[in-house]
Each structure stands twice: as C-alpha cells, then as structure tokens.
Amino acid sequence: MLSADLAIRTEMAASPSTRRYTVWLAPLGFVGLTIALYRNNAIGSIELRPYDLTINLLVLAAVFCLLHSAGRLFLTWYRLQVLLIGLGRVPVRRTLAALDAVSLDSLWKMSGGAGRVQYTFLLRQLDALRRLKLAQAAVALPVETALKVGNAFVEHNAGRAPVKVDWASALEIQGERHYLRHVLGEAAAVVLSGTLEPYWRNELTFHHIANETTAGRRSTDHAEGSIPAAELQANPTLYAAEEFIAYFYISYVQNILAAMRTMVFSMVSLFVGLSMALAFYPFAPRNAIGVLLLATFLFVASTVGVVYAGMERDEALSLITNTKPQLGWDFVLKFGTFALGPLLGLLTTQFPQFAETVLGWLQPGLQSLK
Question: How many domains does the chain have?
C-alpha cells in the first residue's frame, strides 16, 4: 500500500524538478533530433539573424517543456497506479465504494479545484478518528496527536470560507511544532497496523473489487463471501478505522490527480500559445513548422490519451468516483476537451486565413485592453 517512500517518489515525479533521468533524456533527445534535421532549414523571418536565432531557441525550449510535462504526467500516473492497485487488494475498498456523499468531480474536471473538498475530507478524517477513539478503550499516541492537531487547525480556520487545506502547514501546540500531513500519516500507519490488519487477518470472507460496485450505482446487495454494509457498520471500530483510511487515501489521490490536471492544462496552454505565436507572423518554412508541431502534438496527445484511458479503466478510481471501470463517452469527452485547443492551434499555423479569422474574433477584446 502507500508508504512514505512511495509518496515521496510519486510527488517527486509530479514536480518540475524531478530527477528521473528518463523524463529529461527523452525531451532532450527529441530536441537534439530536431536540431539535426532542421539545421539547414531553421525557422526564419524578415528580421535580422539574432532575432531568428532567438525565435528558434524559444521554440525548442517550448517543445522541450511540452515533452517534459508529458513525461512527468506519465511517470506520475505510473507511480500512482501502485497505490491504486494496493487499495484494490485490501478490504478498505468496500468502504471506498460506500462513500456516496463525497463529490469528487475535481478529480477529473480541468476547471475543478482540489481545495474545494480537501477541507471536507479533513473534517471526515477527524470525525472518523473521533469515533474510533470512542469505540476503543484506548488509542495510540499518534491518533491522539492527529486529533489534537487537526482540531486545532479547524478551530484556527473557524469562520473562514473557503478554507484551503495546506497539508504541509505547521501548527504550534503547547510549544511543540506539528505538521498536519505528518501527524495524519503517522495516525494512518498506526490504524492500519494496529487496528485494521488484525481484523483483516481474522476475516474468513473473500472480497473482490468487482463485487463492490455495480453499473453506475452503489450496490446494496453483497456477493457471496463479502461483508454487507450493515454488518460492517455494526462494528464501529472497524468501520471508523476503514473510513479514516479511505478518506486519508482519497485526499492523497486527489492531490496527485490535481497536479496531473495542472500538467495537462499547462501543456494545452503552452501548445496553443506556441501555435498562435508562429501563426500570426510570417515565419518560414511553414511546412517545417507544421511537421514539428504535429510531431510534438502526437507525442503529447498519445501520452495524455494513455493516462486518461488508464484512469477511466482503473477499478479503485471507479469505486471512488462511482463509475464503470471501462472506456466510454466520458473518456471521449475528456480527451476531446484536451485535444480541441491544440488542434485549432495546428490549423492556424498551416492555414493563414484561419489565423486571420481567429485574430478577428480576438480583436474586440484586444482593443478593450488598450
């Protein structure tokens, strides 16, 4: 399941400063190949040579950033899948499937904000820990500390709306400095090893992830060998512990997916901006520019398509979002939303008349800014 090392490696993969050599070598190799192929056919203009050299360097830098972001996106998803596979192999998935009240639209929508529901996740983690403390005669010190620090954070932000949860924030409590993410992580480790694992080892039932969800709705029935929801809720200790772990992992998954969504948005913005910049000035040769942008688009679009398809087909994410683990129109819509802007950018670089039309649409807005 999720370990501190896996969490660090996943977050590092999502960081622009990731040191994974494959994320850097592939874009550098592509840029080097581009320089070799275009050394006698570089982008030119009617300006002086220093201007042309600057434009070529900026274009290569933009292409490198696009490919680097695509590599980070794929590597982040590849590592996040390790966590999701782990969630799919333990009984906590039955609690993931039961959390109907949680809205997770921000996991997918590029316009969504991860911070909108993070505070709700924190409140529900604290509520689960409180119920776990009431159900058990005694709880470990990390659980007590997590409750203390979490409640202090909630009291500090009382009356503020909306509240953005900074999981790395530090709080001073009785002269001691505590970090919200750290204390919750320690509590999760204690709850997993001290409360849940003994229960899970003694369960005689078999849980398969396919039994936890049905087509587009939560199942009120239970397959042969699985614990029904009523029986699970009848054990307050087990239910509170699994609920805390479920929200703990959902919060982490959402943070990583929000970072991935930011990567996709930055790639779309950069590609469209690059295309428009090359389209609204008479650079030459236009065919060579089109080939370079097309190759870049195909690489980026293939990466985004593979990641989006993996998300749609992931069974653990399907439990969280209450969807079918299969490709459908939802995938087509998401990928189409991503590809629309870059495709329009490609059209503007190859068809100057189309660029003039787009400029005509933008002209009133540009005039209003003067």
Answer: 1
81, 314 Cβ separation under 8 angstroms: yes
Beta-bridged to residue 284, according to DSSP, are 44
List the structure tokens of 38.
Answer: 């275009």
Q: From CA 329, how far away is CA 151, in angstroms rounded? A: 42
Q: Please give the residue range of the domain that contains residue 38.
A: 4-368
Q: Which is nearest to 279 in space by CA: 344, 220, 350? A: 350
Backbone angles phi, psi at 157, to 5 degrees: -100, 10
What is the pLDDT confidence band of residue 294, given thresholds at 50, 70 and 90? very high
Phi, psi of 190 (to 5 degrees): -70, -45
Average pLDDT, integer, range 283-306: 91
Average pLDDT over residues 331-335: 88
Query: How many angstroms separate the CA atoms of 112 and 333, rounded?
Result: 16
Contact 150, 175 (CB under 8 A): no
pLDDT of residue 83: 87
User: CA 292, CA 38: separation in Å to the nearest integer?
Assistant: 10
**Residue 101, pLDDT score:** 47
CA distances from 355 to 227, 266, 362, 365 (A): 61, 22, 11, 16
DSSP-assigned states of every residue in 289-353: HHHHHHHHHHHHHHHHHHHHHHHHH-HHHHHHHT--SS--HHHHHHHHHHHHHHHHHHHHHH-HH
Cβ-proximal residues to 360 (8 Å cutoff; 6+ apart), any chain: none
Q: Are strands 213-214 and 170-173 parallel, antiparallel or unpaired?
A: unpaired
pTM value is 0.83
Q: Which helix (H) or strand (E) holds 217?
A: strand 217-218
Residues 219, 99 contacting (CB under 8 angstroms): no
Q: pLDDT tens digits for 129-167?
A: 999 998 887 788 889 999 998 888 888 777 776 667 777
